[in-house]
Design the sequence.
């Protein structure tokens, strides 16, 4: 059995950062499942396929020429890492992600990432649907206001224009869609360690996750985060 840690939660909860740090710290593989839905959203838009065209979307999902190369996300030969990180791409991802046939088409592909020595899987349904037998399940949350503020700071740091009010509204709209869809909605898996990170630093969250890993796998020599 390959050890799997699932880290689920809403947009902007810090899952991406925490998942990457945990994977780096343990030397395990990382699956950024949100990037898959983001690339599918982009590919669908380019192919003129809407979220209503369910079977066409499933065919596209099955043939998606997506590769991760270190931090880079490639669609065919094209580096789409930046393109998929915009708010528009996030919204497009959330729409295609609500299509059951598209999700089903991506299941085996995601499960194939469970390789030795272990996997950290970041998403919305990692602990509930994709890896229901994972030994460690984390559910990371933060208030919508705090998540919008984090995003606002990130955009400003990149020199991009942003409005906090519209970021809060977009985050709430996306949460609503991700939580209320009929298939694999965002929810805390049973027996998950829930971490409310509104007033926690990244290091504090990382420590809680690594403590849980150490308890679950006492044989691993896990160093304290620097
Ligand atoms: O984590 P993220 O913001 O990159 O995800 C983008 C969208 O993809 C998100 O709004 C919902 C969807 N998603 C999903 O439905 N299931 C996942 N496992 C990961 C992401």
Sequence:
């Amino acid at each position: 059995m390959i050890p799997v840690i699932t880290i689920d939660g809403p947009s902007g909860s810090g899952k991406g950062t925490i998942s990457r740090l945990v994977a780096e710290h343990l030397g395990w593989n990382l699956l950024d499942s949100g990037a898959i839905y983001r690339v599918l959203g982009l590919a669908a838009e380019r192919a003129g396929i809407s979220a209503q065209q369910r079977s066409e979307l499933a065919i596209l999902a099955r043939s998606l020429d997506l590769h991760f190369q270190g931090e880079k996300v490639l669609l065919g030969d094209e580096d789409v890492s930046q393109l998929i990180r915009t708010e528009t791409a996030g919204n497009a991802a959330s729409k295609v992600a609500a299509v059951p046939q598209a999700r089903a088409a991506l299941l085996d592909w995601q499960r194939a990432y469970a390789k030795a020595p272990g996997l950290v899987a970041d998403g919305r349904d990692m602990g509930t649907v994709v890896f229901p037998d994972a030994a460690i399940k984390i559910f990371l949350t933060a208030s919508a206001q705090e998540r919008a503020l984090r995003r606002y700071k990130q955009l400003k740091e990149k020199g991009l224009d942003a409005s906090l009010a519209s970021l809060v509204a977009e985050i709430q709209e996306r949460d609503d869609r991700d939580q209320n869809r009929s298939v694999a909605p965002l929810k805390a898996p049973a027996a998950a360690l829930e971490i409310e990170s509104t007033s926690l630093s990244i290091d504090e969250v990382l420590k809680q996750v690594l403590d849980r890993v150490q308890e679950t796998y006492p044989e691993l020599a896990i160093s304290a985060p620097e």
About this structure: The CA atoms of residues 14 and 25 lie 16 Å apart. Residues 4-214 form a domain with the Rossmann fold fold (CATH 3.40.50.300). DSSP finds nine helices and eight strands in the chain.
